[in-house]
Amino acid sequence: MITYQGHHWLWPKLIISFFVVVLSVTAQAIAPIDSKVINRSEELQRQINDLLESNLELQHQQTLQAEQLSYIVAEKNNIISQITHVQNTLSMLIQQGEWLSFSTALGETLRRQLLNLPAKPKSQQLEQDIADIRAQQFNYQQRLELIDKRPSVINPLASTAKGAEYRKLIRHHRDLLKELITGDDNLVLELTRLKIANNQLIEVIDEVNDAAHRYLFWVADVKPIDQHYLFAVFSDLSHVIFSLDTTHQLLSALSFTLSIPSTVILILISLIFVGLQIRFRTNFYHYLSDTAMRIGKVTQDNFRFTLIVFIYSILMALPLPVLWGTIGYALKTAWNYPIAVAIGHGVNAAAPILWVFMISAYFARPNGLFIAHFKWPLAGVRTAMKYYRLSIWVVIPLVMILMGFDTYEGRQFSGTIGRFSFILLCLALIFMTNAIHRSGVPMYIDKKGSGDNLLSRILWMILLSAPWIAVIAACLGYLLTSQILLGRLEASVAIWFGLLVIYFMIRRWMWIQKRKIEFDRAKQRRIERLAQRTRSDEDIINDIIEEPVVDLDTISSQSLQLVRSILVMIALISMILLWSEMYSAFAFMDNIKLWTTKTLAPNGTEIDESITLASVFISVLVLTITVQLVKNLPALLELGILQHLELGPGTGYAISTLSKYLILMIGCMIAFSFIGIDWSKIQWLIAALGVGLGFGLQEIFANFISGLIILFEKPIRIGDTVTIRDLTGAITKINTRATTIVDWDRKEIVMPNKAFITEQLVNWSLSDAITRIVLTVPATIDADSNKVIHILKQAAKDCSYVLADPEPQVFLVDIQEGIQLFEIRVFAAEMSHRMPLRSEIHQLILKGYHEHHLELPFPPLQTNFNALGRKSGRHIYQFGTV
Question: Where do the coiled-coil regions begin and end (predicted)?
Fold first, then answer.
């Protein structure tokens, strides 16, 4: 098979580029003589020689152009033949698809034919070649324009043989340039056709791959295990070791790769990395010990330690997998030795797995990330890493053998040696997975920070049962299917585990910040206590600052919710991208029809549409994604965007709530459309239900509409203090039907939304949180009223909760029953200051009366707690009032 790569034209392109530069210099040398005439024989001879050289160069370019054109045409014909071959394979696959379940040999034959399909051509080189030819054609056109500017020959030289030769050479030069320009047009045309053919070949190969997934994925690719299986394994193993001369091939491949300078350089660089890793490993262990001693100490701990340990652990685990991958790459270049190439593929496939295992080992060290930084239990980490040596010395070689024989000679030994290696690999994974499960590693952490939840148990059940199912499938002959599904599952687990590590790193950073804030507050409180009392030096020395104990599950709950939402979204996107290639493998569900529904065609006629198992599966998937979006996206909006905007609390809550309803509505409409329930079919039903429910559930609908009005009009907001009916409290929730109020006794009162729209409502903090407090203070009839007013004003001035603007006011408002009644009108910044203000100002009034030897008459004190007006007499307290 010949594929177009562009390297066949390397030397012709270099030669053409050289002549282009030479001709450009020649054109620049000739340009100054545009207006000259040739009247000397020596000058005419020089021009003739230049033309002869230019014509020879153009003729040589014509030859190269013809060779290039013939190569492109041959390549195009080859691609067309490949397209025909692939189309025939596709037709045969479709025709034989219904018989695949009855014959394992037929599936093996079709898979061998798929392995012989051509590789996808690369179109990037064609784009570059077309651009180069266009540039070359532009150069020819410029040179063609310069011909008319050449000097002319005047008599008597014009009538000589040299003059005639000069004119002939100019005509020939013009003809050559025109032919080259035309040839470049032909080259561009053929390259464009080749590009179209390449695109067609890519499309056909993609169709074959989709059809192969559709028809062959769930078909047995090898024979089921029988009583002769072990004998076949030992027979093929001896054949590989002795008959194929594996040792000789490996030694010859090693000698061949060492003769390639680039490969040797890569191996040497990898060995240098391994040497550096060994050199600095002791220093890294010392750094782990030093940082572990500082972890948890509020004055020494720093998130920088965790980040450095994370990066260093990844880097320290990298050199050996890089060397491993380099060796695999070197073996793959020895294409004359098939067994070496197969082993190279296996080594390359095992290198990333080796890297993951080594990273986990560095993380799980006693002073490493898991134990010292994340505070995971030491016993649990040791249980999880119990079979680490098993993973290095068993799993890695088994992966190499499995992937190697999958690429060797049309999977010749996959049914024997490859399947035996896969079964052993699954058994090793069973031991490793059970150990990790017993260690208590969570698969999902809920909002409470706990890993013991339903979703985590379901994920662990899938992960624990997957290797057993893979073993059974491989024994029944579904080797390739079980390999692909188990590989995708393990890759999903690796991504999930990586996100889990990132979550714990962010959680630790928040924990460190919280501890520092609490520690600074503790120091400030200590300084304030020291400033308020005189203490001896000894007492000061013995005064110890206690580090605050912080609960990890309650640290920055909103921030952790934001982090959890982001990571869940990343996990969903990663899973969708990872498993999207498997969509065609589940196309068999399109053939399982569940029910039939009527749908409108574009021309307005009704046609029958079958609802298949695939449609139901997609609908459930859409609903699952919708639920996750409804749970996480509003939190992302609130914590990631809205809190950084200058919005009121009610506005942000309204945007989050409406976005949640919108996502839920769109997701449900999309999900229902897959199972035949679209808007055109249910709009009349919804209209009829709307009318019926409007009469039967009018209060609920009224509350729902009122909730929307509250979200848009915002007469109340989250955090507002309101008084409605005989209830006063703070707004904590605004739902679609009702709003929750928390009163001063911390009781939650659920009030229908309709009441906030139709009834009288007092919002103490709608546009201005400042509230007025009116206190009635008595004095005896013989007291100096001016002195009493001065005492009350001084008390208002000294009270820390009273605002200076608006200014406090004191009035003598009444004289009754031999008592002077004074009224103090002061303002508090917010509702929560009302009770502290009353308590403090009462104390200041009593202190002022005592200092000025004034007495309180009977009744001793009457206080009006109504901030909106004045009442006489003693106030009667009711539940929920201010």
Answer: none
* 730 within 8 A of 719, measured Cβ to Cβ: yes
Amino acid at 553: D
pLDDT at 13: 46
Cβ-based neighbour number of residue 49 at 10 Å? 11
Q: Are 347 and 324 in contact (CB under 8 A)?
A: yes
- Cβ-Cβ contacts under 8 Å for 750 (sequence gap 6 or more): 738, 739, 740, 741
Show the DSSP H helices in 259-337 as ranges: 261-294, 303-316, 319-333
Helix (H, G, I), strand (E, B) or coil at 296: coil
Kind of pairing between the strands at 37-38 and 152-153? parallel
Query: Which residues of the chain are under the pLDDT cut of 50?
Result: 1-35, 535-555, 860-882
d(CA 561, CA 1): 56
- What backbone phi and psi angles, to 5 degrees, belong to 600? -90, 130
In this structure, the number of other CB atoms found within 10 A of the CB of residue 301 comes to 19
- Between the alpha carbon of residue 647 and those of residues 632, 644, 801, the distances in Å are 21, 8, 28
Q: Which two tokens stand for residue 597?
A: 């529904």
Task: For helices 679-696 and 649-674, give the axis angle rounded to 10 degrees.
Answer: 130
How many angstroms separate the CA atoms of 595 and 582, rounded?
25
Around 810, how many Cα atoms within 13 Å sit in the side-chain half-sphere? 19
* CA 315 to chain CA mean position, Å: 23
What is the H or E stretch that residue 504 is in? helix 479-532
**Which residues make beta-bridge pairs with 609?**
597
Cα 801 to Cα 172, 202, 807, 865: the distances in Å are 104, 78, 13, 16
Q: How many alpha carbons fall within 13 Å on the CB side of residue 298?
A: 18
Rounded to an integer, what is the distance from CA 479 to the centroid of its chain? 32
pLDDT of residue 874: 42
Mean pLDDT of the chain: 78
Give me the amino acid identity at 723.
T
pLDDT tens digits, one per residue of 666-698 = 888 888 877 777 666 666 666 666 666 566 566
Distance, CA of 488 to CA of 498 (rounded, Å): 15
